[in-house]
Calcium/sodium antiporter (Haloferula chungangensis), 308 residues
Amino acid sequence: MLSAALLTLLSFVLLFVGAELLVRGGVGVALRLGLTSLVVGLTVVAYGTSSPELIVSVKAAFIGQSGIAVGNVVGSNIFNIAVILGLASLIKPIAVNATAMRRDAPVMLGVTVLGILVLLDSTIQRWEGVLLFLSSVIYTWWVVRDARKNSEPSDDAKPMKLWVAIGFVMAGLGVLALGSQLLVDNAVFMARTWGVSEAVIGLTIIAAGTSMPELATSVVGAIRGHSDISLGNVIGSNIFNILFVLGLASIIHPIHAQGLSWTDQGALLLSAIALLPFMWSGRQIGRSEGLILLAGYGIYLALLWPKG
């Protein structure tokens, strides 16, 4: 049991390192292809920090661990808003970008509702996965098109050489694959040892572990005063998790989401809804809102864990 816990901690480190390599390489490739820094932040960074969720959920779906595949996404989205934005806003109140209020936060709420509707029958069929996946492509195209139309290229961007950036991407994917292997295998072992469901493990331990890149990115962004990074990273990751991660995982193998309760889906929806008035209130997420988010997550954990 101790070795499984240590290997799980090691997997968190590998997932963090792998996502960092992937994000750096992806940004380098994107800038070399002429994308603006704004587009890179809205897409590559947000999606890159969600790469652990993608790798873990796809692997779990492939080997038939549907509870982990879905629990990972739902738990990560709750964790991203309640814990990551909660901690980031405690460090420094998060100023809210007008575009995030007007476009991205409402889209995230709509995507959350779509995800819950898809999960009503506790199953995600391949055709539903295709719908989610295509929606992620459309959203990304929309963001890139809108950002290119309303922003100028960065003159001071100094992207790394293309072959170096590609090397970072490949190395990141390799480390992520290894980290996901360790995380899924040992989390399943601990779930069986503790007598809790795979869904609970996915909603808590795995969700927190795969959200480490988002946590690091948002907290560092808050410390350095880059509120747009902290908020945009979380919103973009939550959209990507439902549309792309669940979509691709269910295309590979139809998902049966046993173990996911109305409490979990309610917490997912409530966290997305709560973010909207917090953003509109003074156009910032303050420390008081951060405390509310963290307290809400504590209540959710108290309701969740005994059911295993």
Q: What stands out?
A: The chain has one domain: 2-152+159-307. Residues 214 and 233 are 7 Å apart (CA to CA). Residues 2-152+159-307 form a domain with the A middle domain of Talin 1 fold (CATH 1.20.1420.30). The radius of gyration is 18 Å.
